[in-house]
Amino acid sequence: MNFKLILNIAIHLLRARLKQSIVAAVGVTFGIAMFITLVSFMHGLNNMLDELMLNRTPHVRLYNEIKPTEHQPVFLSEQYKKSVNFISSIKPKDRGKDIYNSKAIIHYLKQDSRIIDVAPKITTPVFFNSGTIEISGVVYGIDAVAEEKLFRLSDYIIEGNISDLTQNNSIIIGKGLADKMMLKRGDILKVTTAKGNLASLKVVGITQIGIAELDNTMSYTSLSTAQKLLGAPKSYITDIQVKLHDITMAPALAKEFSAKFNVDAIDYQTSNSQFETGSTVRSIISYAVGIVLLIVAGFGIYNILNMMIFEKMDSIAILKATGFSGNDVKWIFILLSMVIGAAGGLFGLLFGFIFTSIIDVIPFSTAALPTIKTYPIDYNSTYYFVGITFALSTTFIAGLFPALKASKVDPVEIIRGK
Amino acid sequence: MISKVLETKKLSKFFYDPVKFQVLKEIDMSISSGEFVSIVGKSGCGKSTLLYLLSTMDTDYEGELFINDELVTGKTDKEFASIRNEKIGFVFQFHYLLTEYNVLKNVMLPGLKLGKLSEEEIEYHAMEHLRTLDMHEQALKMPNQLSGGQKQRVAIARALINKPLIIMGDEPTGNLDHKNSNLVFDIFQKLAIEHKQTLLIVTHDNDFATKTNRIITMEDGKIIK
Ligand SMILES: Nc1ncnc2c1ncn2[C@@H]1O[C@H](COP(=O)(O)OP(=O)(O)O)[C@@H](O)[C@H]1O
Ligand SMILES: [Mg+2]
Q1: Distance between CA atoms of A117 and A374, rounded to whole angstroms?
Q2: DSSP string for residues in A388-414
Q3: What is the rounded CA–CA span in Å between residue A402 and residue A405?
Q4: DSSP string covering A298-325, please?
Q5: Which of A410, A413, A416, A418 for mutating ligand 1's site (highest number of atoms within 8 Å of CB)?
Q6: Which residues of B touch A412 (CB under 8 A)?
Q7: B34-60+72-223 domain in CATH 3.40.50.300?
Q8: What is the ipTM of this complex?
Q9: Alpha-carbon span A220 to A211, nearest angstrom
């Protein structure tokens, strides 16, 4: 088969029906442009939300879970080793939330080349006292420098400064809390711990994460202030937050650390599984819409090709009479369809790029995402590659059936018919 | 021994629609290289049908067909296509040029399909054929800008482009006035004499037929003379 000749014939046939061909190509253009726009936009959103969660969530978190001891004393007994032992009414053991030997663990983790950095944290429930009312909440004792490095906390501080936490007995509270208790910077806030310790802390800042539940309950202090509040020693830490170079390694590393340090460990993927589902659904929607639009365009091409073949019966008969085989004729029409697909598809990519560029500059601001100013777009060459592949494969399929019909045209019938 | 360009053995053809009907009845014939043969017969006697079988465009028949002493009956669609491309030049009653291409490209197309020569060489040969048919000045015109006689000359040039074993024509002058008919006949005769081109032409024009080497007369699906 002489590809150049076949393509040349396809293009000549197409030129004879230029208007219809353009209409068909516009259908493909529209489908591909919509696909590119949707996918880029949806993935932009996905990435933005991923980043949002990634910024706030450690890739691996080490902590102590409240749970019963796994190895009960009876398992150690020689006498009952071969028996099946039933133990009822086991109560969880109080190992304390403190991570044992946390200093050494942190030191060790910081050496690990797979890890970007580590941030220690103390999580403790408290009551915030406002007059006679007690509001339950959480205090996070953090290492301001490490926390800023890993989670860019300052992005969410709307008043004050993260470095103010280095002052003794200072606290940064959520906007919801501040509003409820009518607190502003410089005010004093009374805090009661679960064990009954009372402390007065100075409000040095206000955070707004954009999730009401968090903004209404949480607050940050320094590690030392939190330890003082709990009456705990200098080494007391309840969480070690780890950020990795490669997030996909999180589940494996969580297991490794858990075994090595004898603590509980949870990875990003496990703690955000519901989040992944949302991302997947958004991807599916954008692909589905793109495919549906292309199928519609495909039917358009199918119709136009059928019409063209009907009009070009004479030409088909002549080609066959002068030595083109059914296969050649088939490829002429498939290529004709794919030329429409390629032209329409390339314009579709171009328009898709233009549309996404327009969306990219539309202002979009939300309290939850202080760093985002415009709608997010993910410019990724993969989508363009997928787009053109879609365009070519749809037009190939749309062209295939009319082309098969054309290949079966009996020249004798046409020539006799005159 | 003169080689046989075309030979049939008991060639029969049936049509089934609307009723079973035998158009061609066990036709035995042969055409030798360099012959200029005409087929005559009443309208409806099966001349066109025979020509479509001989040209391999219609492959639904009984009996055997030899081209250049080779049995071609039962070959594949692709093989028939290349036989038509390389060995047979066909001229129809209604010129049948591709309206999408100009005259020159129409003539070149079977040559490009064959792909034995470069595009430049094919173009050169196409121009030569157009020149001998006095059509070289119209080479860049589109088919719809030509008269019927001119179109038919272009079709002849196209039939010649791959130096076929045989040129077949189905009433190639049937749609032309007297002057143009003579012109086309002169072209065929010139090809036969000067180039030893084998020709098989169906015609209902007795003047035309008598001027050829041999006349095959058909009646009712049989060759009677
Ligand atoms: N497709 C067909 N189906 C049925 N009968 C046909 C068909 N084509 C031709 N015929 C019949 O076959 C006979 C021979 O036709 P044809 O070969 O065209 O005759 P000619 O060319 O000698 O005038 C005619 O009677 C015609 O009606
Ligand atoms: Mg006829």
Answers
A1: 30
A2: HHHHHHHHHHHHHHHHHHHHT--HHHH
A3: 5
A4: HHHHHHHHHHHHHHTHHHHHHHHHTT--
A5: A416
A6: 52, 57-58
A7: yes
A8: 0.92
A9: 16
Q: Is residue A88 part of a domain?
A: no
| Same structural domain, A215 and A326 | no
- Decide if A85 is inside a domain: no
Query: Which pair of structure tokens corresponds to residue A48?
Result: 């933005």
> In chain B, where are the structural domains located?
34-60+72-223
Q: Are residues A254 and A295 in the same domain?
A: no
Residues 6+ apart with CB under 8 A from A295: A394
Is B130's pLDDT higher than 60?
yes
Q: For residue A299, give both structure tokens.
A: 């039917």
Same domain, A102 and A224: yes
Q: Both tokens of residue B148? A: 């019927």
Q: Per-residue pLDDT for A378 more than 80?
A: yes
CA terminus-to-terminus distance, chain B: 23
Residue A89 in domain: no
d(CA A40, CA A54): 20
* Residues shown for chain B: 225
Does a structural domain hold residue A328? yes
| Domain ranges, residue A337 | 3-54+275-417
Q: How many CB atoms are located within 10 Å of the residue A41 CB? A: 20
B96 touches chain A (CB under 8 A): yes
Q: How confident is the model at residue B2 (pLDDT cuts 50, 70, 90)?
A: low
Instruction: Tokens for A337, please give them.
Output: 């369809």
| Omega before B164 within 30 of 0, i.e. cis | no
- Digit-coded pLDDT (tens) for A215-230: 889 999 999 999 998 8
Closest CA to A202 of A241, A167, A239, A150: A167
How confident is the model at residue A42, as a pLDDT?
87
**Mutation target vs B (from A318, A333, A407, A414; most B CBs, 10 A cutoff):** A318
The pLDDT tens digits for B76-104 are 999 999 999 999 999 988 768 999 999 99
CB-based contacts of A25, cutoff 8 Å, min separation 6: A340, A341, A343, A344, A347
